[in-house]
Design brief:
The structure holds two protein chains of two kinds. In chain A, about 5% of the residues lie in helices and about 60% in strands. Chain A is built from four helices and 22 strands. In chain A, a hairpin with a 2-residue loop joins strand 5 and strand 6. Chain A is elongated, with a radius of gyration of 23 Å. In chain A, about 55% of the residues are buried. Chain B is about 10% helix and about 40% strand. Chain B is built from five helices and 29 strands. In chain B, the strands form seven sheets. In chain B, strands 4, 5, 8, 9, 12, 13, 14, 15, 16 and 17 form a ten-stranded antiparallel beta sheet that branches. In chain B, strands 3, 19, 23, 24, 25 and 27 form a six-stranded antiparallel beta sheet that branches. In chain B, strands 2-29-22-26 form a four-stranded antiparallel beta sheet. In chain B, a hairpin with a 2-residue loop joins strand 10 and strand 11. Chain B is elongated. Classes of the chains: A mainly beta, B mainly beta. At the A-B interface, helix 1, strand 2, strand 3, strand 5 and strand 6 of A face helix 1, strand 1, strand 2, strand 22 and strand 29 of B.
């Protein structure tokens, strides 16, 4: 019942949500990766693997097996960004996205899951002002390029516990989504000659591809959990629509490795660490536009004060730090992201040690740098998890 | 079950929180470096000579009648040749007036005696040639003596309909019974007043008289006046208060003008406007490939296959020339361009919508057809050009390739616009502003 209500809410929200746009780095290469992380992982600076407790993280399929009841999760993520350029420009913008939405349901002694979200954010706009001589007149021009869309994915997973301490999982993912790219030249007022209509040139592409993610999560001791996963993607295909002059394209996607661990120490502290590796440089050969591709290797560390409570309910406090590379940058160097984070969780309803309803919130202060662009951002993540098994 | 309900409420609250959070304002990140553009379009002007884009220029006349203009024209040997006289009929006189009786009460009175009157003619000062020099002109007023049809009346004929053609006894809507004379001095105002006595007023009261009408004529020479409207002011003695004279007004029912000589079709060139109006029709063919001019091919590889979206503007460029002095505009001419649905059905083919965005058309000052002859006038038809290149219009039908150049309102004035025709140094040309950008690909 809860899962159904949650699913409907997710569907309605998804249908009405504007396309996400959170960074200027959306305009580099294939865009900016969207990590399917909830508020807990964000608060602890985690890269989506190895956290203790039952969690719903598509990047940690082994941990999905630890969900004991049907569970739904969704996360919303607004961000506020200020950016500067070495050339002297700057500005700010804000945007929202839904990085994680999914449902897990017990099946055949394990846990089946469905998760959907964005994989690469690609929405951005660029403008360039200028003048052009038309006959004997000089007319102002405004060239505006708008890219609207993203590579999204839908994942179907299955996980189960091999024994009380070890869970394994596998996820089959399908890349989807589309992108529209439209270049428009508008003209200023003309004197003497007739008005000039906008020039519009563009195209639409639909994405397709497949990925397979396998992972394992093991409790080494009662206080230490380790986990690892690997994602094997096929290449990402982009098929141009019939009306598009541009051609079909194919992009290599990297194998993504993740590993993480968390340990409870001193009876009230949970510490975690995680690493991720993915080399996107092979995608550089497929790019014909500006920018360059690198790796997204990185790490994240964090701590959770597990004994904190609020109004008599468990409300753990979290702090973290993470540092990762960005897969694509503008000409002039690699891009990276550094984030300090804090957050808390609130178990709204717990029965027999199972959280039936919980909220995890995180606030992040981060900086992205690369290719002469520096972004400083605040980002909030609010995720809701609801479960039912009774 | 109770716990389950609590969970559901909490879940719903959480969902609301997430939805509310997602309702924050969304802004598009705008890159500040031009490098994020997939390339920069080029915009270039290309001019194509008449022989490469147009053919079959033809001028048609007779659209509308001077009556449609709703105003009059007066001329006497204007520019050495033009004579024009205004004809009008006034509305029936008022048959009741509200007057104050001997007790001071306002009452309707239907027993009215018309003692005198004044026909007031109002002039379009800017449209009259004597306004610039403030030259007074003498006018005369007379009553027509023959029945005339306002829709078909002309200099020679009072009625000119199918199977009914009746000439004036005297060319120029004559003869008339002379009623009054006056002088219009533009320095004194925009109106001239003809005084009428009681007999003259009474002569016009009979609405069953088919000859009922007025002719205004200019007796001075060398000017051309536009009569914007007219009204009859009546002095009335009411039966309820016979010691008092009250004034009543009545307007004009029919107003038109006759003129001579009627302009003959131009042997060459483009003519637009006049009353009745002239239209110029031509066939257009936008080149599918551009192989020049050299300055175009210097930035675009030639031959260049033209695409509809690349046409930022398309216009025919006409060069004005002096109109017949008798029909030279004294005010702006407003030009329009429309597609002709069936060239073979001309001059009666229906026309499409105006291709000019401004519903008042393309305004051209009067000097362009006089002292300033030789002025370039662009008449845009961008959507038409795109349809031709695309091979279909917005409805998916094959587009017409014929254009009509005409006045926005037909007729707009007795004057018409004249432009150079094909074959000369200043023949019409096609002016294209093309914007050509890179094919948008994925990065």
């Amino acid at each position: 019942m809860i899962a159904r209500a949650l699913f409907l809410t997710v569907a309605v929200t998804l249908a009405g949500a504007p396309l996400a746009a959170q960074s200027l780095f959306n305009s580099a290469g294939l865009g900016l990766p969207v990590e399917p992380l909830d508020g807990k992982a964000r608060g602890m600076g985690n890269l989506g693997i190895g956290l203790q407790g039952s969690s719903f993280s598509p990047t940690d399929p082994g941990a999905l097996a630890r969900l004991q009841v049907s569970t739904g999760i969704m996360a919303g993520q607004p961000s506020w960004v200020d950016f500067t350029s070495e050339s002297g420009g700057g500005g700010n913008f804000q945007g929202n996205r839904f990085p994680l939405m999914g449902i897990a349901y017990p099946l055949l002694g394990g846990m089946a899951s469905v998760q959907l979200g964005s994989f690469l954010d690609q929405t951005f706009a660029a403008t360039s002002e200028g003048t052009v001589d038309v006959g004997t007149q000089t007319v102002t021009t405004s060239d505006r390029f708008v890219q609207n869309g993203s590579v999204s994915n839908i994942n179907l997973g299955y996980s189960r516990m091999l024994n009380p301490d070890v869970g394994v999982g596998i996820t089959l993912g399908r890349y989807a989504g589309s992108v529209d790219r439209v270049l428009t030249r508008s003209f200023g007022e003309t004197d003497g000659i007739v008005g000039l209509d906008d020039y519009v040139e563009g195209g639409s592409w639909a994405y397709g591809g497949t990925s397979l993610t396998a992972g394992v999560s093991a409790d080494v001791t009662s206080a230490i959990r380790v986990a690892a996963s690997v994602q094997l993607p096929t290449s990402l295909g982009a098929n141009a629509s019939d009306e598009t002059d541009g051609g079909d394209r194919t992009f290599d996607l990297p194998i993504q490795y993740r590993a993480g661990a968390s340990a409870e120490v001193m009876g009230g502290f949970l510490v975690s660490g995680s690493v991720a590796m993915a080399d996107w440089s092979s995608a550089a050969d497929d790019l014909i536009g500006v920018g360059q591709a690198g790796d997204t290797n990185g790490f994240g560390v964090g701590v959770e004060l597990t004994q904190a409570n609020l109004w008599g309910k468990a409300a753990p406090l979290r702090f973290g730090y993470r540092e990762t590379g960005l897969p694509f940058s503008f000409d002039g160097g690699d891009a990276s992201e550094r984030i300090f984070s804090a957050g808390f969780g609130l178990a709204l309803n717990t029965t027999n040690g199972i959280v039936l309803a919980g909220v995890d919130a995180a606030i992040e202060r981060g900086r992205r740098m690369g290719g002469g662009i520096t972004e400083k951002f605040w980002r909030a993540t609010l995720s809701l998890r609801a479960a039912s098994g009774f | 079950m109770k716990r389950f309900g609590g969970s559901l409420r909490l879940a719903a609250l959480g969902c609301l929180a997430v939805v509310a959070l997602s309702a924050c304002e969304e802004e598009l990140p705008v890159a500040i470096e031009g490098g994020a553009l997939p390339g920069q379009p080029i915009t270039i002007l290309v001019e194509i000579p008449w022989s490469e884009f147009a053919s079959n220029l033809e001028v048609f006349g007779g659209y509308g009648s001077p009556e449609d203009l709703g105003e009059g024209v007066l001329a006497n040997a204007f520019a050495g040749s033009l004579n024009a006289r205004t004809l009008l009929r006034v509305n029936p006189y008022p048959n009741v007036a509200t007057v104050r009786d001997s007790s001071g009460t306002l009452r309707p009175d239907s027993t009215l005696v018309f003692t005198a009157g004044r026909l007031v003619a109002f002039f379009d000062t800017l449209g009259s040639t004597n306004f610039a020099a403030m030259t007074p002109v003498a006018l005369s007023l007379g009553a027509t003596q023959a029945e005339w049809d306002p829709a078909t009346v002309s200099w020679s004929f009072a009625v000119d309909t199918i199977n009914d053609q009746r000439a004036w006894a005297e060319a120029g809507a004559g003869p008339v019974t002379a009623f009054s004379t006056t002088t219009w001095d533009p320095a004194a105002g925009d109106s001239a007043i003809f005084l009428l006595d009681s007999a003259q007023v009474a002569a016009w009261a009979d609405t069953t008289d088919v000859t009922r009408g007025v002719r205004i004529e200019m007796t001075d020479t060398g000017e051309r006046l536009r009569v914007r409207s007219a009204a009859l002011r009546l002095d009335v003695r009411p039966s309820l208060d016979p010691d008092t004279i009250i004034a009543l007004s009545t307007g004009v029912r029919d107003v038109t003008f006759v003129y001579d000589p009627f302009p003959s079709p131009p042997p060459d060139g483009v003519r637009i406007g006049g009353a009745p109006s002239w239209r110029t029709v031509l066939d257009v063919s936008i080149p599918e490939q551009l192989t020049g001019p050299p300055e175009f091919c210097a930035v675009v590889s030639c031959p260049h296959v033209l695409e509809p979206a690349q046409i930022s503007s398309a216009a025919i460029v006409l060069t004005s020339r002096a109109s017949d002095p008798a029909f030279q505009p004294s005010d702006s001419i407003r030009l329009d361009v429309r597609t002709v649905f069936d060239r073979a059905a001309m001059p009666k083919s229906p026309l499409g919508e105006s291709l000019i965005v401004d519903f008042l058309g393309r305004a051209v000052g009067p000097d362009a057809f006089g002292a300033g002859a030789g002025e370039e006038v662009e008449i845009p038809f961008t959507s038409f050009a795109r349809d031709l290149v695309r091979g279909e219009d917005a409805s998916g039908n094959a587009p017409s390739s014929t254009l009509a150049l005409l006045s926005v309102f037909e007729p707009l004035s007795i004057a018409f616009a004249s432009f150079e025709g094909p074959g000369g140094a200043n023949e019409p040309i096609l002016r294209l502003v093309l914007t050509i950008g890179p094919t948008v690909e994925l990065p």
